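Researcher: I'm preparing a figure for a lab meeting and need a structural model of a single chain. I don't have an experimental structure, so a prediction will have to do for now. The sequence is pasted below. Please return the structure as tokens so I can convert it later.
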Amino acid sequence: MRGTIATRVTTGGGLDPTTGEPIPVTFTWTDETECLYTPVQNSNQGRYTDGTFKQASYTITTGKMDFAAQLLRLTNSRGQVAYEGEIISIEVLEDIQRVKIIV
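Model: Understood. Here is the structure written out token by token.
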């Protein structure tokens, strides 16, 4: 299926060097990038985090070879958010010039 992905960018945080006041953390989403995605059919695909198993929901591929992120939003072709959350793994597929993302 066709869709788009955007990654969450964190800005701010820390302390203002002149006043010492905390700088609030803000979150924004990057521009949408086209992708192809499929729901995960295999229930054993995922990873253990803090002693619990997180099952994968989607396999996504994109042509953006420099893709790097921790949080992602997947939107389907109708503009509806299909997934928003952590990325399980990122794999660069050099032979076909795509990046495979498991969420």
